Amino acid sequence: MSRLTIDQLDRAEVKTSPYPHFYLERSLASDDATALIKEFPSLQKGGSFNIADVEASDRLRHFIQQFDSAKIRKILGEKFDLDLSDKPMMATLRGYSRAKDGRIHTDSKSKLITVLIYLNEEWPSPTGRLRILRNGDDMEDYTDELIPGPGSLLAFKVTDNCWHGYPSFEGKRQSIQINFLTGDRAKNKHQFFHGISAKLKSIFR
Question: What is the DSSP letter of 196?
Fold first, then answer.
């Protein structure tokens, strides 16, 4: 089964400006990334899909379950000065970016940490690269521009100023989003929303 490179995750340096975050160009071995990319569900519509609502391979589900382990929770919690030991975790998938996606935003306050793992074979396009932004108004005012390549990983602490986005891109753009939430009510809310969203997409496509 595909495994996180836990040693690299543990050694990753957290940048504190403009908000706490870190990036790994490779979060798993090349062969593992290739296998996950190959088995990634075919999501040809925009938006997020809860992992419970899609047909995902055992390999992909096992990879996601690693984030729910005490070891990974401890590593991430220590990096962002949070106790994640008993916090609910949510996993969603994205497979397609619409032209309107990527607009500047912060994540909701019901989320404590966001982890994004990109599963794309390569990324030659100059657009669609996630930017860590200094403010909520200017896409060009960024500190980092991150390539959504094979197994790249971004983790950040959800704060009032965790602005991020990417220049408009339309096409295949696969990612897993892991969130540790403030509590079970937040998890139920997100699962309900994502579940309904996925069902509506299947009805109206």
Answer: H
Alpha-carbon Rg of the chain, whole angstroms?
16
Tens of pLDDT, residues 35-73? 999 999 999 889 999 988 898 899 999 999 999 999 999
The span from the CA of 173 to the CA of 182, in Å, is 28
pTM beyond 0.85, yes or no: yes
9-39: burial string, b at 16+ Cβ within 10 Å, e else: beebeeeeebbbbbbbeebbeeebbbbbeee
- Give the tens place of pLDDT for each residue, 171-196: 999 999 999 999 855 555 455 444 43
**Nearest one of 171, 174, 176, 123 to 147, comparing CA atoms:** 123
Kindly list the distances between the CA atom of residue 15 and the CA atoms of 22, 47, 95, 175, in Å, as whole numbers in the listed order: 6, 29, 28, 22
Can you list the domains of the chain with their CATH numbers? 6-204 (2.60.120.620)
